[in-house]
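Troubleshooting: if your tokenizer reports a length mismatch, compare against these two reference records.
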Amino acid sequence: MNEPLTPEQLRILTPLNVLSEQQWRELRSQLVPQPLLAGQLLFRQGDQARLTYYLLAGELQLQDAEGRTQRVSAGSAISCHPLSPGMPRLHEARALTDVSVLMIDSVTLDRLLTWRLAYQDLLLAMQQGGADIEWLERLLENPLFTKVPPANVQNMLGRLQRVEIEAGHQVLTEGEAGDCCFFLESGRAEVIRSAGSDRQVLAELEVGACFGEEALLSDRPRNATVTMVEAGSVLRLDRQDFFALLKAPVVAEVSLGEAARLLAQGAQWLDVRLLEEYEKAYAPQALHMPLQLLRLKARLLDRSRTYLCYCDSGKRSSSAVFLLSQLGYSVYALRGGLDALPAVQRDALLCESGAGYLARSGGRTERSR
């Protein structure tokens, strides 16, 4: 039986190499290589299955609608990137030899990637402000945050109330109404549930753990007691702030036609994807400013100019638009991202490649070398 790819193998695959080990664990069931025999078809031209494919071993051939072919070998630079990305597929892929491929759900991958990059941006900014980054990283790995729009996280951190608690004290009690949830900042805590006259220890909580949220989500009484077994501190988040945290922010979006009108008026494309994705193909004179560095580099943008953000699915660009809007910039996201465009429009838009454009101080744009 095949085993999932190791971290060392994942680190050469873009953009999988950006994800955290926690996120790799979430993808574990999809990180198992799949065999394909010589001559077998991997996908057809025009295919719209939401899957991201990587070639891990062997050779295959990509063929476009005009019959042009490209041979891809495992271990080559191109094999470190998804095969024929974008919807619908621009190529047919057929195995030339027995091959091994990786197939990952694109929606899940994009969600994880968006969160990872948005959080990296947030952590960099907070580190500059002297925050405890190690604790924040552990906090953000909590499964709760898979439900939270990245743009809301910094607002949430500002609403947390620190409470110091001695060993033996209860943080919350089984059966009581839930009016808040907590994050364990330091110390150790146990989750205990009554079983008749006995008390059953269900778990010991680690630093960064969130607890008490289940009662908020289900609107039911607490189903367990949490007691500190070692003195420490918790961060309290009130009910109304918890639900505000889960609410997705509204961002301004434009269609490709509306973007063309804004470009004619002096707007500029802003590509928030990874450098490897950008250099493969980008929009005319699009500035490159990846999401994970956006907060730090935003000061280089021209406040008198409108920016049009894009990425593959629209998730990363939506996070970018929310952030830049908060900083006072005029900015829009391409509705639905590049994947929502017909293949002809996508190809026409992404007409440049290689060294691109960088923002410099004073709102200047400079061609990278």
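Reference record two:
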Amino acid sequence: MIASPPPPSLRNLKNACCFSPFILGSSYHHRVISVQSQRTWRPVMFLNQKPTVKDGVLSINGRDALAGVPDNVVVTPWTDSSAFLGATSAHSTSRHVFKLGVIQDARFLCLFRFKIFWMIPRVGNSGSDIPAETQMLLLEAKEETTYIVFLPVLNGEFRSSLQGNSANELEFCVESGDPAIVASESLNAVFVNCGNNPFDLMTESMKILEKYTGTFTIREQKQASQFTN
């Protein structure tokens, strides 16, 4: 009998590229991630459950994503496996930091902006490991072969980014950059999606956001410049 290949896992990613030495924290130095281009991904059947918050737990397609979700967090389902996350406040300001919930003992890969024009990766397993100005968070759910991606998006006059705190809580920061432009809520600040193949998950998520925002085109839809031929 031929054994089936192991499910995709952040634990199995190795030998491709070293993380930048600029990453803070010695525990992240020299960590290695790889992608096996010929890997066969094992399909997983989802139950097509709409994203919900129940008893303080955010579930995406039946998979627990965050615990300890505050009451002011708003979930707007978009597809069977995706939703927009936002939050409300009692006061208006040009900058809000909202808590989304707790991430603990769950492996993740994120991309964060460490300089104005540069992003680098970081890995961790709790909310406190997530740096400020995180632009993408790929979380490995405790159920094997399941991944959840969080993508902060532009929401009107406000930009969003992710970050963690010392209590292992995932937060999102929304800011207009102008003291005159204020708001008391941001309802579609973070896009979240779930899937069993991290590569297909990212592609699908960007296609959804392309249609939702109408402000960008994914690479496969762009026409190559003549000088590249």
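Descriptive notes for reference record two:
- The chain is about 5% helix and 45% strand.
- The two ends are 48 Å apart (CA to CA).
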